[in-house]
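Human: Here is a favour to ask of a fellow structure person. Comparing notes only helps if you start from a blank page. Give me a protein, with the fold worked out from its sequence. Please set it down just below, with no commentary around it:

Assistant:
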Amino acid sequence: MSSYHLFKRTRNIRSAAKQMKPDAVWVAETRQTLLMQVKNSQPAPAKAQKAISRSFNIFVPVISFRWMRAPAAIVMAIIIALFSGSLFSVSAAEQALPGDLLYSIKLVTEQARIAMIKAPEDRVKLKTEFTERRVTEMKQVIDSPLANKSERIIEAAGVLKRDMNTIKNQLEEVQNTATPEKAKEAARIVDEKTTSVMADLQESKSKLSATEIVKVSEAQAAASDTSIKAIELLVNTHDQNSELVTEEEVINVLKTHNEKVAKTINDSTGLKVEVTTSSKTGLTESSTTTNAVIATSSTSTVTNDTVEETPMDQLSDAAKSFSEADKMVAEKNLDEAVAFIKVGTQQAFAAQKTVEEGVVKQEEETKQAEQDAIDNPPPENTSSTSSTSSTTPEPVTTDPPATTVNASGSTSGTTPAP
């Protein structure tokens, strides 16, 4: 390819790039991802850097790109696509995982594909497909022997969380511009995919450390929040056309969402909210409870005149919110029902975060205690008094009663046999 043809093609790229409007959330958060990539990537040896530079000059003649001031990341992705047979090929980036040198190119290429799609509902669909990639990438990293594995997992969770926030913004655009039919389809796809993401992330937690679990749970919460946004879009479509989206469809979606949230919290913490059902059309089949096994105090604490809520407090609030949502459904007030479900879901995930962060804190304290014991071993004492006292039996303790949380905020339990 001659320099003239190359210049002509890049000029066309510039013209197309001027019409591209990358998502604001993506622009802001990709910067953080890129910085993390630089941190995790090992610098190439000097000889390798020179070889790369020579190869790049062969495939891309030196020309001035100062005029290319449209979204730089998108333009770069398109240029890479033009030279897919070169050293930095898109096909190679497609196989990259979080923490790899080419992973940022993979993300930029995906964003370029989205930016070139005109219809908002189609952009949502494609971005939702990319979130499935994020889950697959995380699973691959978890099952791999890669270096900096923990950092890679945390990075993957952060990228997934960012993508979920992007989809939320895209759904807002769909609601403002798309037809009811297309809005319904986009909402349905997003709700199904985010529900699947929550389940897949929960399954992966069994292989993660406590610190990694906290970050994955943040991505779970973002997926749940995006699911609620899709439900809000579905309810809005129902308000516009009740025949296109029936009341029964909305109630079934709300019920499925609640069940998935409850299962996630139960699997993560052993806690489950007891919701009072007000009618046969309610969001829950019956009031069910389960034993609560948590590693934190069961009573609220006061620090600097501020009451710190425990998981029990947070789940009690969530139970009340879900019960109120059930009443709104019975009264056919779906907008209010979604609002209460949104609040209840956030309260439930806040309880999960409190429990999981408590586990991280306990692990850190245990490690610190072990290290202190190594650094400062106790002095040896061979006296008879010490020997006698060391054989004193420890007091017998019993397990605390199992606890359940209900919508009224009260707890119940059974006292174990001595």
